[in-house]
Amino acid sequence: MEQPEELVTRDCLGCGFCCRKSPCFLGEIDPQKKYCKHLVWNGEKWRCELILKSKTIGKALYAGEGCCSDANTYQRYKVIPTPEDLKDESALLRRITRRKKCVSPK
Ligand code: SF4
Ligand code: SF4
Q1: Which of 13, 14, 24, 63 could pair with 58 as two cysteines, CB 3.0-4.6 Å apart?
Q2: First to last CA, the chain
Q3: Beta strands at 46-48 and 39-41: parallel, antiparallel or unpaired
Q4: Dihedrals φ, ψ of 14, to 5°?
Q5: Is the CB of 92 under 6 A from ligand 2?
């Protein structure tokens, strides 16, 4: 049987897209925010507070292993949205795709 190609990853930006759109098995959705309640903004990037507290959890969730989210506009355009940006995410995505240059996968 043919072996699958090696998974291509990029450096994690800390954009939080993965945790907002597809929470892991430890994720718990905050009904108001509509994304995982453990996802926190540190003023520069999005971080998982569970991973910050436990290396074991970080290892189980492959933290630091890179990003394989190619369909993610934030990763493709190297943009980190702030909590303020997320109040009108579709407007932000329109601005990003109009103004910034897309960064091709490796
Ligand atoms: S860059 Fe990728 S792995 Fe890192 S937070 Fe964004 S979507 Fe998740
Ligand atoms: S528990 Fe942490 S890694 Fe999992 S979805 Fe929530 S913020 Fe992301």
Answers
A1: 63
A2: 26
A3: antiparallel
A4: 85, 30
A5: no
Cite the beta strand spans of the chain per DSSP E.
39-41, 46-48
Sequence-separated (6 or more) residues with CB below 8 Å from residue 90: none
Q: Is 15 near ligand 2, meaning CB less than 6 Å away?
A: no
* 3 C-alpha to ligand 2 centroid (Å): 30
**Mean pLDDT, to the nearest integer, of 74-95?**
94
Ligand 2 neighbour 36 (Cβ under 6 A): yes
Burial of residue 31 (CB within 10 Å: 0-12, 13-18, 19+) is exposed
Are 46 and 23 contacting, i.e. CB atoms less than 8 angstroms apart? no
The predicted pLDDT at position 9 comes to: 85
